Amino acid sequence: MVAALTACSGSGAENAATTTAAPTTQATESSVPEATVAPGTTVARSTTIAPTTTAATTTTVPDPAAWAPVGAGQYAVGVATVTIDDPAGVRPLTVDVWFPIDDGIDTATLIAQQYTLLPGTYYESPDAFAATADQIESDERFPLIVYSHGSSGLRYIHSSYTEALASHGYVVVAADHTGNTAIDYIAGTGASAAEVGVNRLADVRRLIDSFVDPDDPIAGPYAAQVDAERIVVTGHSAGGFTALATITGYSNEVGDVPPDDRVDAIVTLAPAVSASFFTDELLATIEIPMMTVVGTNDMTTPVDPNVTRLWDLTTGAPAYRVELVDGAHQTFTDLCAYIEFLPNLDDVPEIITQTIEDFAVQGCSPGDLDYRRAAELTNTYVIQFLDEVLNGGPAIDPALVATPDDVIFYAR
User: Fold this and answer.
1) Is the pLDDT of residue 74 over 90?
2) pTM (2 decimals)?
3) Mapping DSSP to helix (H, G, I), strand (E, B) and coil, where does residue 91 land?
4) In the chain, at which end, N or C, are there fewer CB atoms within 10 A of the end residue's CB?
5) For residue 27, is pLDDT > 70?
């Protein structure tokens, strides 16, 4: 079954290159080439340190504090699955919603959320609960985050990420991109690449439309707690393409999709940034804040050219780039956790375990960054970024908090 639980198999246009950039040696200023950057290093690309003629003074600069993960946020997390109807009757969207649970709800009365892979086969969340719209925290309005899964993926393929975001005070929504899901992969019902590109963007637009509309018949109870002035799109691999194209707009032989100016920031995880998707000129139009997180060992959407090209062409955008040393493509899914959990179940179909293990080679193999550590790093950097751009929080400053040894960090 589940080739698509892989959230990007590395086939097709996503595999824009087949070589991967290795972590290298240290650099500290914008004038130093990227090829000399070492793990545990920060590179500030937006400023040049100019010579000074001022009289020398002695200044004591304290050592930066040790880096620490943000951990779980203040909210228990509820998960609900809803269907957003298509007025045209063509593309109803199956959507998972992760949200902060009202602190008056006794979570001991709730059951753990189960993400169903096949009937009877599931992954049980260690952190989130199956909940309903009337259990959302009603004393606040939260930013909206739209998550887009990778090619042949599923809406909940990275629940360790979407749950973490919700625990820190975000309403997170993710749809199965019909025509480009695990089910489509298995059934042979996948849409053409051109259709997928346009449909993904239409799905994101419909999610935003629904989840900022308190009168929406399905999404309304969640939308009532959403702040429509704070919206982010995030996604993995082809979902990274989706996040970027939501900002740039996208055109092909199937249709034209304009940019969505409601989106305030984007976060891309191992994004697919092929020149066949985005011209240099199109990427250069991005000006909103963005964060990109990638693994240095990613063979499907390698750092170079995917992330280096994106970084070099989007100089008008305030941005962070986080490279996880020894991270791989499936580092940004829950496949490694699935491998550990599924032996707890009886009679798991062999095709599921075998397919997951096959794709998990890119992320769960010896020498790959441990998936728990990857989650700590990814969730912490992304949540700090979101807090900065949506809530007026502090910038990520390695002068105050040291960069971990298993991260290469760029800022501008």
Assistant:
1) yes
2) 0.89
3) coil
4) C
5) no
Looking at this protein, which amino acid is placed at residue 412?
R
Q: Per-residue DSSP letters for 55-71?
A: PP---PPPPPBPP----
SS3 237: coil
Position of tokens 């707690």? 225
pLDDT at 380: 98
Alpha-carbon span 357 to 346, nearest angstrom: 18
Q: Taking Cα atoms as reference points, which of 142, 150, 98, 193 lies closest to residue 330? A: 150
| pLDDT confidence tier of residue 44, bands split at 50, 70 and 90 | low
Q: What does the CA dihedral 48, 320, 232, 195 come to, rounded to 10 degrees?
A: 110
Q: Are 327 and 368 in contact (CB under 8 A)?
A: yes
CA distances from 208 to 140, 147, 173, 285, 294 (A): 19, 11, 9, 22, 26
By CB atoms closer than 10 A (0-12, 13-18, 19+), residue 261 is exposed
Average pLDDT of the chain to the nearest whole number: 88
**Rounded Cα gap, residues 113 and 162, in angstroms:** 13
The tokens describing 289, both together, are 């804040």
Half-sphere exposure of 43 (CA within 13 A, CB side): 23
pLDDT tens digits, 328-371: 999 999 999 999 999 999 999 988 888 899 889 999 999 999 99
- What the block records as the tokens of 78 is 């509820």
Instruction: For 372-408, write each residue's pLDDT tens digit.
Output: 999 999 999 999 999 999 999 999 999 999 999 999 9
Residue spans of the domains in the chain: they are 69-405
Distances (CA, A) of 56 to 51, 52, 174, 300: 12, 9, 55, 50
Residue 61 confidence (pLDDT) above 70: no
